[in-house]
Amino acid sequence: MSEAELGEGGPEKADAEGGEVPTGPTHEPFSFKLLSTLQAQQSLNGLRHNDHLRYRQYCTRRLRRLYNVLKFKHGRGRYKQVPFPDDFQDMRYLEIPLASAERSWSYGVQLKADSAAASALNPRWRHHSIQRFSKAVKWAQMLESVCKIHADQRTQLEAEAYAAHLEGFWLVEKESWPEA
Asked: What keywords are annotated for this sequence in UniProt (predicted)?
């Protein structure tokens, strides 16, 4: 197409006016064994020995590697939040919300264990651990919504189960019995 046929707006405007714009993903649904991957990562990186600090450090390193490999950067110097892409071709983008949820969950469990081990109970630690569980639920719900668009049926069900598990864990910790 020549520039005269496209008009002033370029290809985007031509698609919006006359052609059909694809609304869904431009790839086949990803098949990602979410729960088995999660179980393997947990057992290999500290949770076999109930070491939540080690597992959280692993999740942080994993996130860093994913960001670098996928070239999903957050600005130079100071952190600048970049929105999660709507359309992507690499299945590893599904691992970003998973690793973030696991990191938050592990930190919450670590804070809970430290609070229980301390001689005097610290209500701030309990509050902070509940906030970490809340953040884990937020990431799990994001994983679930991304899987509904980009993943196959089995992965969608596993993401839904994972989100429900974390939400139940959070509500029990929050002592919100009717919702749990």
From this structure: Cytoplasm, Nucleus, Ribonucleoprotein, RNA-binding, Signal recognition particle
With beta carbons less than 8 A apart as the criterion, state whether 166 and 138 touch.
Answer: no
Determine the longest span between alpha carbons in the chain, in angstroms.
77
- Give me the residue spans of the domains in the chain: 34-73+88-174
Residue 76: strand, helix, or coil: coil
Instruction: Look at residue 82 and give its three-state secondary structure.
Output: coil
DSSP H helices, the chain, are: 3-6, 10-17, 34-44, 52-69, 95-117, 123-150, 153-173
Identify the CATH class of 34-73+88-174.
mainly alpha
The predicted model scores a pTM of 0.81
Measured distance CA(121)–CA(127) in Å, rounded: 11
Structure tokens at 172: 């029990």
- pLDDT one-digit tens code per residue, 20-43: 555 667 778 898 899 999 999 999
Length reported for the chain = 180
Whether the Cβ atoms of residue 80 and residue 97 lie closer than 8 Å to each other: no
